[in-house]
Amino acid sequence: MLDWLKNINKEYPDFWKTYLAKFEHKSKRYVVFSTETSGLNPDKDVILSIGSFAIVNNKIHIGDSFESILLQYKYFHDNGLSNEFILESKMKKLSEPEAIHAFIDYIGNAVLIGHHVDFDVDMINSALMRLDCGRLKNEALDIDVMYRKLIDVNDKQFSLDELSEIFKLPKSYRKSPSEEAYTIALLFLKLKNRLGIK
Amino acid sequence: MNTIAENIADFLKEYPPFDNLTFQELSAIATSIRVLNLEKNETLFQINDKLHDCFYVVASGVIHLSVIADAEETLLNKCHAGDILGLRPFFAKNNYMMTAKAREESIIYAIPIVTFRPFVANNPDVLNFLLESFATNTWNPKEKENLRGKLANDNVFYIDQKSEMQYFQSLTYNRLPLTATINDIAKDVALRMTENSSTSVVICDNQLPIGIVTHTDMCSKIATGQFPLTVTMKAIMSAPVVTVVENVSLAEAQLLMLKNNVTHLCVTSDGTDKSTVKGVISEHDLIIAQANNPGVLIKEIKRSSNAKDLKHLRERLTELIQNSIHKNIPLSNINNIASEINSAILKRAVELSILDLGSPPARFAWLSIGSQGRKEQLLLTDQDSLLIFEDVMPDKYRDVRDYFLKLGKKATAILEKVGYELCPNGHMASNMLWCKSLTDWTKQYDSWMNTPGENSNDLSSIFFDLELVFGEKKIFEAIENVILKDLDHNTLFFDFLGNDALRKNSPLTFFKKFVLEEDEPNKDKFDIKTRALMPLIDGARLFALHFNIKGLNNTYQRFKQLAIIDAKNSDIYLNCAEAFLTLSKFRVSEGLKNENSGQYINLSELTKLDKEKLKNALAPMKELEELIKSNFKLTQFS
């Protein structure tokens, strides 16, 4: 319970201090992101790749993006998996500390958007813990929750595919986190408008 | 490396002008793209908005471009996926001249001008495409065809277009009028007028119009000897001059000329004689503007030599209809004009086929049935027709029939190219069943009408809405008389038709809610054709046959006529006539909006007022139903 007291004197990495300092101002930027993970347990599983885009003024800025593959050598080695498919990809490859560092720099104080975003945030938080940082401070919005609010349904979850179908978005066949993030971004714009969020 | 940028580049490279650029260039452009989502009816930019710093490409959905003339909104163009809009910032500094509005929920790519400009500068093909798009008038469907696939739909300034709705279009006029001062001498001015082949000269004082001298003035004042050749303009000019604003419509200009009894109008920047002269509208300009009217369309149809020409003309008819509806011209008038033009197209299609096949070996009649037979075909619906040829000697019969079948096939194929789909039930003259000799047709009608229950599967009530398109009037009259004769005291047949008319499902539920479609692809839409229009059409036909109304096939006119003949029920008929027009209008608007047959109305798109209007238009149907029930004893088939 007194964990935070313990942490108060703890020395954070520099990038984390910069990150914390950004929260003095409120942001008008949204960052939509999605992660690909090795499994569903935030404690044991790791992030394999991240894709994200920024939304400013109701516009998705394609250039303002972050995507990377995380080279999880240790995880693959420990679990006896092959990492060939990662090496084949043309996306930028970073080690987990590098990638998380860059991602934190990228999101800054933006509001995070995701699909079942709690899980993505948990995954990032676990990775941050390994780097001796605190938890993400960003506000996070979940498009599934937004949609359920829109249609006033509480007892059902909607997958990204279902939402794409409902809003008649074209389905992409390859499912990279970047493509997921883009789809989430479009859904977010539509939902934001319908819910009247300014 | 940016996956989505590459996906967007992949999309762009399919469309001009981006197809002139390399994939690397497109990827670079794509990284600076911003993606927007437009709700339905959301405005992207409107007239007089400051220019945006980007132009737009439609990724999905439909954007409508429109301009406003005479306080009326006119649709210029529909942009679909891959179309470019908002090019104005490339070429001009002043504000937008049109409004871009999402017709349905759309996703738009915004490409910053700064990013794209270098590619324009370095690539002449891209520049040419943009210039062409910027300058071209896409309103004319003929040009649209020529430029399809390489043209962005934008930046048409309304003065340049020739929209088909003559009286409400803006005028093209002389924007560089001849001017003179009050001290100029008549002879000099006359020489200048002759040189410039101008019929008028505006007399200006410091750019402001104070009078005008026209041919008439020269004739009546100089040539008569009333004034000498050396007289100054001051003495002979007509003043003050009648001035108008820049985007005046044909109708307005005409009225002003009549009202003021003048032949020329002076255009000034604010419409008064206290501002600078912008041009002169002469009577001749009005005549030119009217060249693009339905009469001309029919003339052009008569001259056309292939299916492609006819297709262009049919597209112009669609524009005409669309504009007329926009301008709230009564639907019955539009119906008349459209059906005349439609008939001309059908007739020309048969003529072209005859030119191809050689003269027919016997006299014949080509009849339209169904909606064209009733002169109610505004949208491109399917074609229904039949062919009757005169009786010939048995030894010739085969050849003759073969010729007419060939003729039927050829003509329907031409019409299919024009855009009239083939009838799914095969109700066409190319079908052996509906291309027969007069005797066979007489037998056919006899059997349909005297024993309607027995062979009813191929009896469709559309066979009783006939119109002669081409051929012998006598044959047509002969078949009309057969029908008339068979109608006499034929309660059985009326029973059949009456039941047929009542069989349609009711449009409203018990709780006065619209009955919506339950299955995809038209789920939750209202089937206005089967649930609302067909019962009225069937009812009108039934009563028209019952009261022996000949020559009137149009549902609206049938009801009007019925109100006169069957005076005690005239209220019901008149209500039905109005309801029919209202419902047709809903259908046509829907069809034009979505470029389909308009059969299914999306109720969620209607305003509350429109919904009420639609509901009210359904009310007379119930009365008509009761009337049918009480008039005909519908027992044999129910």
TrEMBL record, chain A:
The record, for Gene3D superfamilies, names:
Ribonuclease H-like superfamily/Ribonuclease H
| Keyword annotations from UniProtKB, A to Z | Exonuclease, Hydrolase, Nuclease
Instruction: Name its species.
Output: Flavobacterium aquariorum
Query: Which GO BP terms sit in this record?
Result: DNA metabolic process
The name on file for this protein is 3'-5' exonuclease
* Cross-referenced InterPro entries: Ribonucl_H, RNaseH-like_sf, RNaseH_sf
Q: Where is the signal peptide?
A: none
**SUPFAM superfamilies, per the entry:** Ribonuclease H-like
Note whether Glycoprotein occurs among the keywords. Answer: no
Which lineage?
Bacteria, Pseudomonadati, Bacteroidota, Flavobacteriia, Flavobacteriales
TrEMBL record, chain B:
The Swiss-Prot or TrEMBL record annotates one GO molecular function as: [protein-PII] uridylyltransferase activity
- Give the signal peptide as a residue range, or say none if absent: none
InterPro entries membership: CBS_dom, CBS_dom_sf, cNMP-bd_dom, cNMP-bd_dom_sf, Diverse_CBS-Domain, DUF294_put_nucleoTrafse_sb-bd, GlnD_Uridyltrans_N, RmlC-like_jellyroll
Q: Does the keyword Transferase apply?
A: yes
Q: What is this protein called?
A: Nucleotidyltransferase
Q: Which PANTHER family match?
A: CBS DOMAIN-CONTAINING PROTEIN, CBS DOMAIN-CONTAINING PROTEIN CBSX3, MITOCHONDRIAL
Which Pfam family is an annotated match for this chain, by its short name? DUF294
Give the source species: Flavobacterium aquariorum
Q: Which PROSITE patterns match?
A: CBS, CNMP_BINDING_3
